[in-house]
Amino acid sequence: MKEKKEFRDDLKLCGLKNTKRRAAILEILEKSDQPLAAEQVFSELQNKGMPINLSTVYRTLEILAEKNLAIKLNITGENRTLFEYNEQVHRHHLICLECKKILTIKNCPLNGYEKSLAKETNYSIAGHKLDVYGYCPECNQKGKGQ
Amino acid sequence: MKEKKEFRDDLKLCGLKNTKRRAAILEILEKSDQPLAAEQVFSELQNKGMPINLSTVYRTLEILAEKNLAIKLNITGENRTLFEYNEQVHRHHLICLECKKILTIKNCPLNGYEKSLAKETNYSIAGHKLDVYGYCPECNQKGKGQ
DNA sequence: ATACTTATTGCAAATAATTTGCATTTGCAT
DNA sequence: ATGCAAATGCAAATTATTTGCAATAAGTAT
After folding, report:
1. DSSP bridge partners of A83
2. In terms of domains, do A37 and A103 share one?
């Protein structure tokens, strides 16, 4: 968990003005264990009693992603764009096909692969995105998985 | 490239009626080297002089994906859902961040990883999705990459 | 071939997600 | 404090996708 002032600094460092809405959105993303859609961020703000417009949320999330403070995510089966806090650490997702819960995987099985792919395809590789799909233990127990 | 009759058979085997629109959509997906959005499939049909309604395209793509004749794709940066023909072979994508071209990668660097992840997380793993992002040789030359 | 049943399609309208223009407000450097 | 650019609110526009229902076409049995 980060301190509030850290969010301010993060914004400043990116050349963004520090506004209460932006800092609040960044904090919501950081505190969430799940990537969130604009609408979800919006209602969390409402719950906290912070008046904000949905367009502002969209615009803010977009700019946070642009500045690399957040990561934009499009997962199969979700028709909305999700955003997560950028921990600045390479990570992947394990998504439950039943309950849609997203688990973060911190170690990456692809070290070295990018280099060999670059050689093979002549592309310059910028990064990759790996999502694994399956059924979480809870949903498995309910007999819906498999 | 598949024969037209093969598309008919594929549909029948899935318990779907063989209609000219469905077979045409399946053929368009199969012929395309890129995953396509509903809108794109729609205009290809128009160009071919086949009258069709956009809702039909959406419905058809959805049902094709459900029957595993097509694969549904949500890639970062594309706000529309894309569909590609299901070659029934495991594959990944290499996406150019500049021109958005999608290259299919047929060998998978993740053999074995799913098993170890299953053990580690207690999930049952159904599959995974790996997208690699980078710049294609052409865009690199234009000096926009890197 | 004809008739029948049901899935498929068209159409128009609804919904959901996201974006935009513009007037107002706020952050921040001076 | 003052001023300017960036950020926000608001309403309206776009874009993507879905849905209800009537018309049509596919597959099956006759």
Report:
1. A36, A72
2. no
d(CA B122, CA B133): 30
Q: How far is the CA of B21 from the C1' of C22 (A)?
A: 45
- For A15-72, what is each residue's pLDDT tens digit? 999 999 999 999 999 999 999 999 999 999 999 999 999 999 999 999 999 999 999 9
Q: Which domain holds residue A18?
A: 1-88
| Per-residue b or e along B56-83, where b marks 16 or more CB atoms closer than 10 Å to that residue's CB | bbeebbebbbeeebbbbbbbbeeeebbb
Same domain, B95 and B145: yes
The tally of domains found in chain A comes to 2
Distance from CA of B48 to the nearest CA of A (A): 29
- Contact residues for A128 (Cβ-Cβ < 8 A; gap 6+): A110, A113, A114, B130, B131, B132, B133
Instruction: Tell me which protein residue sits closest to nucleotide D17, measuring alpha carbon to C1'.
Output: B58
- B145 pLDDT band (50/70/90 cuts)? very low
Pairwise CA distance, residues B7 & B139, whole Å: 36
Contact of B42 with B7, CB cutoff 8 Å:
no
Torsion of CA A20, A26, B76, B91, to 10 degrees: -170
